[in-house]
Every structure is written in structure tokens, then in C-alpha cells.
Amino acid sequence: MYVSLEPCAHWGKTPPCANLIVIKGMKRVVCGCIDPFAKVKGRGVQTLRNAGIEVTVGVLEKECLELNKAFITVNTLKRPYIILKWAQTANGCMGLLQQSRPQPISISTPTTRRLVHKLRADVGTILVGAGTWKADHPQLNVRAWYGPDPERILISAHATQAPEGFWLAHSTMRW
Ligand SMILES: Nc1c(N[C@@H]2O[C@H](COP(=O)(O)O)[C@@H](O)[C@H]2O)[nH]c(=O)[nH]c1=O
């Protein structure tokens, strides 16, 4: 059996995966990386070895840590995995506005736009600042790809009401 992340050894929403692997009679398990989450951290591998299963750890470790980065961030740092995303021209401009045509200009190509919407479908939440909301009234849903729309949050120091379909988060930070 090949797994990117160490099978868990604790009861969470589901029973321990390592126990099931033992019950199913696997002979050999190749595990990409150890789960750094304190409740697992080598215990999954130990459960398998105690049951006589041959376990190899650390195959393509860097790639497996990368693959599991969102899960690992949530469980070790106790915060969401955050992606900063913006569209920018080759000469470093963003949010271009033409005086004669005061509306957002597309920097993304049809292909990169699809990638943007794929990213939206892959994340749980998308957060936008009050300035962007004021300028663009973005929809921030998934239209050019397939999958669920993310939850949408407007972060603002002054707004008292969220736009329809958005959550409101208050920002107290200034820079
Ligand atoms: N112009 C531009 C972007 N503009 C940003 O995209 C958001 C609009 O989302 P929606 O209303 O769902 O289409 C909004 O926040 C706007 O500032 N984004 C990009 O990936 N590429 C682009 O070229």
C-alpha cells in the first residue's frame, strides 16, 4: 500500500486508519511523510510495525509534505492554510483602470482565468478587502471550472453589514 501521509493512529471524526490497515492484512506500506500532527507523529507507523507490517517512510517526502500542506498547516499551526492570489501585468501593475472606461480590465487569459476558478473550487473560503469590494463588487464564485463555490468573506474596518452572500469580518489593523 502506498500513502502520501502517515496513516492516523487516533480517533477523530473517523477511527484510526492504521488499525484498519492492520485488519485488512496489508503486508507492506510505503509512506511518503510522517504526520507532524502531535496526536499521530510516528504512532501510525508504530501501530503498523507492531503488527508486523513492513513500513518504508520518506519516499518523495518533500513532494508529499507539499501535497499535504493544507492539512498539515491546520493541524500543526492551528490556523487555515492561506493562499495570497492576485493578477498582475508583466510590468508589475494590477487593478488597471482606464479613465475613459472605468471598469476592471482583464489581466488573466482565458486559461489562467480557468485556473483561478479551479483554485476557488479547491479552497473553503475566499476573503476580499473592502477596497476591492467597493471597486469591483466581485462575485468570487466558481464559473469557469467545476466544483463548489467557496464561502466569501468581506474584511472591512467600517462596514456594518455584509453584502448578500458574504460574511463580514472586522479588520482593526492599519498600515
Ligand atoms: N482583473 C482581474 C481580476 N480581478 C479581480 O477578480 C475579482 C472578480 O471576480 P469575479 O467577479 O468572480 O469575476 C475581483 O476581485 C477583481 O479585483 N482577477 C484576475 O484573476 N484576473 C484579472 O485579470
Q: What does this protein look like?
A:
It contains six helices and six strands, in the order E-H-E-H-E-H-H-H-E-H-E-E. It is 29% helix and 17% strand. It folds into two domains: 2-77, Cytidine Deaminase, domain 2, CATH 3.40.140.10; 96-170, no CATH class. It has helices at 17-23, 43-50, 61-67, 69-77, 110-122, 130-136, and strands at 2-5, 28-33, 54-57, 125-129, 151-156, 166-170. Helix 1 (17-23) links the parallel strand 1 and strand 2 (28-33). Helix 1 runs parallel beside helix 2 (43-50). It is elongated, with a radius of gyration of 22 Å. The chain binds the ligand Nc1c(N[C@@H]2O[C@H](COP(=O)(O)O)[C@@H](O)[C@H]2O)[nH]c(=O)[nH]c1=O.
